[in-house]
Write a structure and sequence with these properties.
Layout lengths: L3 H4 L6 H12 L1 H4 L7 H8 L11 E5 L5 H9 L5 E6 L2 H11 L3 H4 L5 E5 L11 E6 L8 H14 E12 L2 H7 L2 H18 L3 E7 L6 E7 L23
Parallel strand pairs: 1-2, 1-4, 2-3, 4-5
Antiparallel strand pairs: 5-7, 6-7
Helix pairs in contact: 4-5, 8-10
The protein binds S-adenosylmethionine (SAM).
S-adenosylmethionine (SAM) binds next to helix 3, helix 5 and strand 2.
Length: about 240
């Protein structure tokens, strides 16, 4: 039988069709019916400084079809590395194939690693300066969210930052969803609020996304390597302006 990644090639069907198919297969973990918009991708990756003096190790979690991976690739410096973690084997295979096709990814192909894995199993010995999270937290239970948050904190260096999104209109969604989903969303929101309290927090609203979303940036206390490109705040990042 033909390999799935070869059959669903980027040129034949495109990432959007694959993403929608995977959402149809498992909406809970895929989290949306469309990939993040370019505007949301920009807001989530704007904190990555273009630095030639400090090599950043960047982790992307829940890479999907690469909407955020492309935005990261377009921003990273020549010595930076990007590790993309994606749990879904079909999406991970698609993204691997995309590295050879997409111009932004191809330009830094030798510094990108795609891992088909669950973020919760990531070894805590790995350490990253910047973590871009594309996970649909609102669909997870409180315990799942707490486990993911601990995994993220475990691999984030002091002074490093995490960006992630949360969709707007959760209360409106609650009116039309069942009690189980409402419980998950509130439990997950509680876990995330407690997690955020450990960090310096910034957020911006992004209306041009389906659905509209907040882009959050959390900066971990601690000292990172100095970066001459930035005068204040986290030396690895610059303030978001989206
Ligand atoms: C909302 S989609 C985001 C995809 C892409 N980053 C974007 O912004 O369009 C969430 C992705 O996270 C993946 N995912 C869900 N739970 C995960 C986990 N525990 N570890 C790694 N990936 C996960 C899903 O398979 C899905 O591809």
């Amino acid at each position: 039988m033909m390999n799935f990644a070869a059959r669903i090639s980027p040129t034949r069907f495109g990432g959007h069709a694959l993403f929608a198919a995977e959402a149809g297969r498992d909406l809970r973990t895929t989290g949306a019916i469309a990939p993040s918009s370019p505007r949301l991708a920009r807001a989530l990756t704007e904190s990555i400084a273009r630095s030639t003096d400090t090599a950043l190790s960047i982790l992307e979690v829940g890479a999907g079809t690469g909407a955020l991976s492309r935005a990261i690739a377009a921003r990273i410096g020549p010595d930076d590395t990007l590790t993309c973690v994606e749990r879904n084997p079909r999406l991970a295979a698609y993204l691997r194939a995309e590295i050879g096709v997409d111009p932004a990814l191809r330009a830094c192909a030798e510094r990108i690693v795609i891992r088909q894995a669950d973020i919760v199993g990531l070894p805590a010995a790995e350490k990253y300066d910047v973590i871009v999270v594309g996970l649909p937290f609102a669909n997870f239970t409180e315990n799942e969210t707490r486990a993911i948050c601990e995994a993220l904190d475990g691999v984030l260096k002091p002074g490093g930052c995490i960006t992630y999104f949360s969709y707007l209109g959760g209360a409106a969604v609650d009116r039309f969803s069942g009690e189980r989903h409402r419980r998950h969303r509130r439990g997950s929101a509680r876990a995330l609020a407690e997690f955020r309290a450990r960090f310096r927090q910034d957020r911006v609203k992004v209306w041009t996304n389906l659905p509209p979303a907040y882009a959050w940036t959390l900066t971990k206390p601690g000292v990172a390597q100095p970066d001459p490109h930035v005068g204040t705040g986290n030396p690895h990042t610059k303030p978001i302006t989206a």
